[in-house]
Design brief:
There is one protein chain. The protein contains 5 helices and 2 strands; from the N terminus they run H-H-E-E-H-H-H. By secondary structure, it is mainly alpha-helical. The chain has one domain.
Length: about 150
């Protein structure tokens, strides 16, 4: 196979994967994601929340046992975004394997995992909303959303 044909095949594979990623994005980012994780993945702050549901300790300070375990709001948000990123990455990795195998490619596991890791890291950073915290309007909206999380 000539270098030109190899380059064309590589570009075709990138185009096919891009189209598939566009198609499965909604599946991994909305349908597979738990609703509670969607609401709490952007939580920030040093105030205490309950680990089982993310509600502020101030609302009900009398929980006991497993129900009474607490963590900071930031830790709770990191847990929520981690669950979401894991499920999103699984959907994307499965679709990548389906497309590459269907087209007859055997992509090395290291390449698949490197791509999945790069996507997971960037997706997690964006969904955590850390890059947006400099914006006072976004910060205010995020605090309003956190305040409206049902207990």
């Amino acid at each position: 196979m000539t270098d030109r044909l190899r380059a064309i095949e590589g570009l075709a594979l990138v185009a096919a994967l891009t189209a598939v990623f566009d198609g499965v994005h909604a599946l991994g980012d909305q349908f597979v994601q738990r609703e509670h994780d969607a609401m709490t993945k952007g939580m920030h702050g040093s105030h205490l929340v309950y680990k089982n549901d993310g509600s502020p300790v101030e609302e009900n300070p009398w929980r006991h046992g497993k129900e009474g375990r607490t963590c900071t709001a930031s830790a709770y948000g990191r847990r929520s975004v981690s669950r979401h990123v894991a499920s999103y990455s699984a959907v994307q990795l499965a679709s990548t394997l389906a497309v590459t195998r269907t087209l007859g490619y055997r992509v090395p596991a290291s390449a698949l995992l490197t791509g999945a890791a790069a996507n997971a890291i960037t997706h997690g950073i964006i969904d955590r909303r850390d890059p947006l915290l400099w914006n006072p309007v976004e910060l205010h909206q995020m605090r309003d959303r956190q305040a409206s999380v049902p207990a």
